[in-house]
Amino acid sequence: MGFPEIRMRRLRTNATLRRMVRETSLGVDDLVYPLFIRAGEGIKTPIASMTGCFHYSPDRIAEETAEVAALGVPAVLLFGLPETKDERGSEAWSETGPVQQAIHEIKKRTPDLLVITDVCLCEYTSTGHCGVIRDRKVDNDPTLELLAKMALSHAQAGADIVAPSDMMDGRVRAIREALERNGFQDVAILSYAAKFASAFYGPFRDAAESAPAFGDRKSYQMDPANAREALREIELDVEEGADMVMVKPALSYLDVIRRARERFDCPLAAYNVSGEYMMLNAAANAGLIDRDATMMEVLTSIKRAGADIILTYFAKSAARLLRG
Length: 324
Known about the structure:
This protein has eleven helices and twelve strands.
């Protein structure tokens, strides 16, 4: 049986019918809002490379996160910009570091808002690389101890979830063991399990002041051409104790998100990264697209591909539309 008995347009007749048969539903609960915390006081400074995003000092961050919580967004992701950097990134695990202080301030104001912390040394090292440097290369194994110290310091400050983004082999196990040894068995790990060496990170690296001082990150972040390898990375992180896993970036890797969703049962996140965010903003500012409509289409496509959680700088804007 076919046309005219079957008319696919029947179920598109009006908005209510379309809503009733919609296959993919995007909600506020799917969103995480990334934020940048700079050491200092009284800071709320626009980030030139990222429209609508700011650097906040710890004493100003609770104002922003209270608004996030009021919109119903369940979680924020914190990146830190320290006052000083060194070769080991030692400010990363300081009790007085910007992220650690920010966690305290957020939890005082909005205790139910989930705080996720990025665990990586690139913002803290003088080299801009994600680990210990030896012979101008990132040395994997000595880096694991430092990442574990960083994650533990975030847990001690009150983080709900730690999110290692460094792509060192064995980092999830090192972090899981450190958390367990110190009584933080309830702190979850969201692993950047399949993080690709992408050209879409440019605006973020400016915002986080984390561009490599030499070379690139292709020896530890993934080759964009590889999807099967991404599944191996995810599988290993799950075996090491990751509670949730992430694919980053999102839009150029929707196929990887779909393959991960079909293979793994754990919660799956995808990061709608800075370059994707700014491409859309640039096109909207040029009058080429409708910003809100395109934003919602993009986020829905990530959800449709299989992501349970979407980390996006559009979180507040999307939440306002979703809540009506």
